[in-house]
């Protein structure tokens, strides 16, 4: 049984990092932008289409009549209306936009799911994941490739247990998504910080000092002149990362660094869509109000997402 591509990707990342001494390693997790387009409704609603449906889906619009576009949008509205009260709130709209923007994550999980769900029971146990990922190591506990698979396996198990919220050592689709993409889940952010600190904290004191901070980003070689960005990062550490000025970053400071509280673009877009469509100004949208502004949400075209609804839903 082979070591899974996940481990091989890790190995390649290590080699890549050590072979590019002047290239900055990025640790900060940012939300992906809702669209690469400028948000200017005076020039069109492309940004809103990207935000509402996801950029990949918005790019694959097919020509539809306004009537067909409205009909399909109506089905989507029912999906957004989580409590089925006949209205779409800002909260529901924000959740939908967030989900649309994270579709690539769910697609990634779906691609990996069948590899790990060995018994095809619709769940993935820690034992299944361990055997598929570390099968070669389990057969040969002393590989000569230089990697500490025992440590990596223990680290994966700790993360798996954190994602497994009911503690049954079996992950459903959402728990497995949290395991593979912990930065996307609030209850997993602590493990992201812990793993990051373990990677960077070379002296094992539980903190990240300036040398460790720079050393993680920059592989110094004596014959090479230090790039300008390294000096900038030293200033960033002293002025912004080390908030209490004790010369090192603790867990809270590390979380502020790698998981910053970014501007919530999905919330802003949800507010914008409600503001533009809420004709009676009651703070929520009826299906009729959304369909009346269909061009703001989807225009007069359908997306791959709309086509997926055709396949999975009876219009």
Automatic annotation (TrEMBL):
Domain EF-hand residues, every copy: 68-103, 104-139, 151-186, 188-223, 265-300
Gene it is expressed from: LOC120032312
GO MF term list: calcium ion binding
Gene Ontology terms: cellular component: endoplasmic reticulum membrane; extracellular region; Golgi apparatus; melanosome; sarcoplasmic reticulum lumen
Protein name: Calumenin-A isoform X1
Keyword Repeat: yes
Record-stated family: Belongs to the CREC family.
Coiled-coil ranges per UniProt: none
PROSITE patterns listed in its UniProt record: EF_HAND_1 (PS00018), EF_HAND_2 (PS50222)
Signal peptide: 1-19
Superkingdom, natural source: Eukaryota
Pfam families found in the cross-reference section: EF-hand_5 (PF13202), EF-hand_7 (PF13499)
Subunit description: Interacts with GGCX.
Record-linked InterPro entries: EF-hand-dom_pair, EF_Hand_1_Ca_BS, EF_hand_dom
Protein keywords: Calcium, Endoplasmic reticulum, Glycoprotein, Golgi apparatus, Membrane, Metal-binding, Repeat, Sarcoplasmic reticulum, Secreted, Signal
Function: Involved in regulation of vitamin K-dependent carboxylation of multiple N-terminal glutamate residues. Seems to inhibit gamma-carboxylase GGCX. Binds 7 calcium ions with a low affinity.
